[in-house]
Amino acid sequence: MPYFFIMEKVILSILSVLMSVAAIGQDIDFYVKEVGNGNHNPEIHCIKPLNTNLKIYRRYSYESEFQYIDSKTFNTPNDSYVDKSITICYNEDQYIDESDNNIYYYITNNDSTSFSEEKGGRFGDSNNPEWPKITRLDIENNNLVIHWESSISEDIHHYELRKQNLSGGWDSIHSYYKYSSPITIAENICDSINVFNFPYTIFATDLCGNPSLIGELDETKNYLYPPVLESVEYDNCDTLSFKWSKNRSLSGEITGCQIQYKSDYTAQDTKDIDIRLSDIDTSEPDHQIYKLKVSDYTELRSNNDSLYFRIRTTAGQYSSSTCWFGPVTIIDIPDAPDFSIVSVKTAPDNSENEIELSMTDNNPNPYSDREYVLSRDYGSNTPEIIWSSNDNEIFRYSNQFTTTISNTISNINSHINYRLSVIYKCNDNTPLTLDETLFNSIHLVKVDNDAEFKLSWNSISAGSYDNITYNVVRTYDGEDYTEDVQNSTTYINDLSFVEPNSFKPANWHVEAINNEGITIAVSNTITLKNSGKIEMPDAFIPDSDIKINRFFGPMNKFDENDIRKYRLLIFNNSGTLIWSTEKYSSDMEDDTSRWNGKDFRGQPCVRGTYIYEVYMEFKDASITPLTSRGTVTLIRNN
Questions:
Q1: Continuous H helices in 470-509
Q2: In this model, does residue 308 exceed pLDDT 70?
Q3: Are strands 41-46 and 30-35 parallel, antiparallel or unpaired?
Q4: pLDDT tens digits, residue range 495-547?
Q5: Alpha-carbon distance 351 to 237, whole Å?
Q6: Which string of DSSP letters, residue by residue, matches 234-282?
Q7: Which of 216, 303, 324, 493 is such that its CA lies 20 to 30 A from the CA of 332?
């Protein structure tokens, strides 16, 4: 036997005897606990610092031999040393016989004169690893692809893909070692998928073989249920209806949803259509339903009659998608031509509107059984169809069509909404509106105001036109005057253009001009039959030799039969009313309708300046009431 081996046996035998003898008076105070990510590595804690190098031994029973592990200097209180050379896995639900399953640690100083013993039994892994964070669930080519965040924990030994069986247990399908995300399940899940019984998940397993707890699975809802697209139906007109199981694949409510489609099942490239969550029908407890108008996505019809669809949902940072569904045949329906209401012009007497329409269709097969309908409504009234036609009539001889429609209107009291629609009858005779354009007429009104003349009208919505401006056009005494008011919808005028003592009518209308300088709408006409003013003299002489100079009143010769109301008021300088009359006469020498220079008592007023107010209202309500206020000088010869 070699000499050094004999000496080592002798030393260990002596050490065993010394430790047994000195165990009663141990002076190295330490304890052992289970530590590590999974609590399966024993850790030695020295309670009092010993600034000397200590040797650490272990043995599995009193009968076994000592094993030298390492040496360490414990410099601070509770300084520790982890025995990484051994992994102790223990299930605390099982009873372990201490005589067979204990581990003993010994610490001694270099000269072996001081040592201590600590029994470290029942070490083991009592904590299950955490669940991996699953971040994405895809289905590609009928295979399930799972992405998760790999743990940085040294305790994780591998991951397991498990599938719940019919009895509720979890069957292991495959094991994947650390940092192997993502994984693909190479099985045809799309042919066997079930809405309510398709849970997959990823288990984490530690070095002792402990898996993630099933209880945590229930709390985090980390089942892998991809949303199952059960049906995609096309109504042979314009609507695709999607029905899929509610997203239960990842925790949290869905925050985003897309429809993905492709023309070839084997194609890798897909196109996306984002869905507003508020548009999804969630009234059914276990399903979500969405209806998509094909006409809103012209690319759905481009060169393909059949498409494959799937649904992709997101919940927070997680996402998942369904299996592809299809092929779904989409029947081609015609597009709407380029069409518009070019202009709407209202007759001056509000009796008739003239509507100009324009249409152009570059469809190589223009006879598409489309119907064109022009309707109108007054506010909340039921829309009324005033014109209709079809492809055979409009595009029989040319791909361009223009027409002017004269439409009789009675009792206009507001602007009119016009709607030009293109309607297609689907295979089941369901009417489908391919496109429509709106247009408002202008309705001009006079705003009553004694102080000024004011016009007002509605702003218009004129289809695709923008930057609409307005011109106010006035016609008086055979001449037109135009004023550009930009985008304002009111106009104020002081009537200074009117000739004195004139009853010539003044007419106003408003024109809407588009950004190309074209008149697209003309309003009705407002007419004022009398826009004159009351002419009053500056002075009069009550004792004049000329009789006509003896009276103060209007110099206009209005017909008494046209006057509905008349009032003349005279005030002195202090503002006291001294004389008035409400009788009108065209006779310039009638002292009942004109002031003769006397007060209410019949006493002559002194020379000086007096204040007057005069008001005239006509029986014809379209004639503007006339008012005048000013001063007059009373002169006396004697």
A1: none
A2: yes
A3: antiparallel
A4: 777 776 566 788 899 999 988 888 999 998 888 776 567 889 999 999 998 88
A5: 41
A6: E-SSSEEEEEEE---SSSS---EEEEEEESSTT-S--EEEEE-GGGSB-
A7: 324
